[in-house]
Amino acid sequence: MNLLVTIAAAGAVILVLLPLGAIFAYLVFKGISSLNWAFLTQTPKPVGEPGGGMANAIAGTGLILLIASSMGVPIGIGAGIYLAEYGRNRLGDLIRFTADVLNGVPSIVVGIVAYGIVVLTQGHFSALAGGVALAIMMIPTITRATEEMLLLVPNAVREAAYGLGVSRWRTTLSITLRTATSGVITGVMLAFARVAGETAPLLFTAFGNQYWNWKINQPTAALSLQVFTYAISPFDEWHRQAWAGALILIVMIVLAVTAVRIVASRGMLKGAN
Amino acid sequence: MANQALGAPRLPGPQPVAKNEVVSGLEAKSEPLLRTGSSEVADRIFSLAMLACGLCVLALVAVILYQLIIRSNLSWHASGWRFFFRSEWDPVNEQYGAWPFVYGTIVSSILALALAVPLAIGVAVFVTEMCPRWLKGPVAFTTELLAAIPSVIYGLWAIFVLVPLLRQYLEPFLAKYFGWTGLFEGAPYGIGMLAAGIILAIMVVPIISSITREVMTAVPQQQREAVLALGATRWEMIRTGVLRNARVGILGGIILGLGRALGETMAVTMVIGNRPEIARSLFAPGYTMASVIANEFSEATTDTYLSALVEVGLALFLVTIIVNVLAQVLVWSVTRGTPARGHA
Question: Where are the domains of chain B?
């Protein structure tokens, strides 16, 4: 029985890791074979013409993420600071709970909300709407991570600053937050990685675009959207490009996550301990 | 004067106090190293700004609820609760019944949990109790990597790898040996409820196993030692000492996985077949609440159509909130005694 369970548990691990291995193998195998310079520098060609690429979608993803982080990161970190430094009360508990709830909201619902707030007000799809949707998804993750990291900073550090007569806001910004920087960056990057591949909230906010776009109030292509559209299309050429797009997307995300792990293992809170 | 004071020899015992007399009352007022007058205002502004950020989080949930409610008003007034139990979905004739989507969401999620739960618990047991130390990190890391893959990539992989596998091997096999159950009937297209369930299972395993691992680690080491000391084998120790103590938290993890499965959109949309039908066979195509929104929202031309889709979204939102709150409470009830650990 003992041996049987050990084998079963090890079997479960193998069964779980198998799809992971398969997904990565296919991504690399199929992605690299269809990746070329044109893919990275050109916009999509019309159906039937070979060639073309996803350069505008890569740029679009960058644009949307930029908009999302410029809104989501300050608010998320601010809310995290509130929870850690001022939030030892019932309001803090309520915000903490709400952030956890917000974390579990399905991304498609966030898309509907961004559609309601931005697209209906503006009258058309836009990069801004996509950015708002992704910002809503980033905020709870960043908030909770920031709070967790700030709480790891020993109270003695804060007291030392107060003892020198430093005011509370300076202590929070230049001492506490500074000490927890690498941890907060980890949280931000995880939130970033989480929303970078999101597709559902962009379907009817950023909408997609066949051409270059740099305006925040115009529909914008995004890598994840393009992968989705190409994957469900009936054309082999587009399937090939979908794999290449997916490879680029996953490389971006894995780089972010790995960077995070390196930062995190390289002495989180080194200054404090 | 100050120099004199510094230069004076430090003598033990009472110090000369004569100097104080020369100092005027005004100058003797003690001052802190930094001026505090302006920083009180700054402190106030700062704490208000942070409070505003915190309130933003509350406002977000309020805005989400408000948007969903006002935009689904039309549909709610048209059919009320019956909306969720009618099974005709025919936008052309303005017939909106969400039952096929509700059914598809429930069936695909249950199927996913049925496949994922044993695997996830197996992984957690292996990592926390059996695994050699050097293997722990890599296994934990790779299962978490599964959680970082965007769902559109799962969908892509499912369309081009999983579905053909199902069509050629698994579905004919199931139809041949288990066809009598009625669950595996009809033409094995590959695309359908079964494919959606399997891809969802792959996606929720990391969530369930990481929570399970967390609550299993929270079980005190003495429990394990006590059970072992009574002569239990390792499996008996895991079963009675660990799993039984952690069962509430594990249930919480499973419910959290359920929450993810209910709201998952892209991967499911890509493989479930997207037909608002209710069929007993798992080979048949279906539709879920999330995927109907994803597919039809930007094509919804009339107000009633859009409103019906938003109402589906509202229902999805409320259900996932209830599920997530329940899960949080369960997990929290097990892990509250132990210090917080990072999830990175």
Answer: 77-335
